[in-house]
Write a structure and sequence with these properties.
Elements lengths: L1 H35 L4 H32 L3 H84 L5 E3 L5 E4 L1 H6 L21 H14 L9
Length: 227
């Protein structure tokens, strides 16, 4: 019975030894990867999984080797007494690997959120850096655009034949174009109604109140006929 049993014995014992060797080779490989990138959560997870699998490989392989040694030496009763403890250790190592995997799932979600936040911060930092480096040019460009817009507005303001004026919240004229000065009777170059209350130029006070109420309510007035 020994000769037919020999191949099984070689496979069982040899496979057990190889399990131990390969498991510790995996630990060594993951340990080197983890040293290259200690903040990589994947390498940390694989490191602990490999430790759990190595523990399982050692407990299982040691149990198989011990089993074959005891059976070959005729000590089956001793193996029957040890077997429950070997199974308990194997179960514990399975639970350890499962716990690491479940814990990693939550850690991975946190890691993804941290990675996304890091990318957003890096993008914001790059934008701020670009803004700081080009701030003077941006200010100059926008100042030139504003100056052009002001010149265009002033040109329309000056050459328009219609009354264009700016009134403050108290109803006083803050600015008025030349056509407005002429229409309101201020034809002299130095004469201007600036500072005057605009409502004094209305024949009826109700017209001014209605106009003011419409502007305060809607922000603009269209097709309003006044005298």
């Amino acid at each position: 019975m020994i000769a037919p049993f020999l191949p099984l014995l070689v496979v069982d014992v040899g496979g057990s030894v190889l399990m131990i060797v390969f498991s510790f080779l995996c630990i060594g490989l993951v340990y080197r990867l983890r040293r290259l990138d200690p903040h990589n959560v994947v390498w940390t997870y694989l490191f602990w999984v490999c430790i759990g699998l190595a523990g399982f490989a050692v407990s299982r392989s040691a149990g198989h080797i011990l089993k074959q040694a005891l059976l070959l030496s005729g000590q089956k009763e001793a193996w029957d007494a040890i077997r429950p403890f070997s199974g308990t250790i194997n179960t514990f190592m399975f639970v350890f690997v499962a716990s690491v995997t479940l814990f990693f799932e939550r850690v991975w979600r946190i890691y993804e959120q941290i990675t996304a936040d890091k990318a957003a911060l890096q993008k914001a930092h790059a934008e701020l850096l670009h803004l700081n480096q080009n701030l003077e040019g941006i200010v100059l460009e926008r100042s030139e655009a504003l100056a052009i817009s002001e010149r265009q507005y002033r040109r329309i303001f000056e050459v328009s034949r219609d009354i264009i004026l700016v009134v403050d919240s108290q109803g006083r004229i803050a600015d008025i174009n030349p056509a407005g000065c002429r229409e309101l009777g201020f034809g002299e170059p130095d004469a201007s109604p600036k500072g005057e209350r605009f409502q004094v130029f209305f024949e009826h006070d109700d017209d001014w109140r209605q106009l003011k109420a419409a502007i305060e309510r809607d922000g603009f007035v269209t097709n309003s006929e006044i005298t």
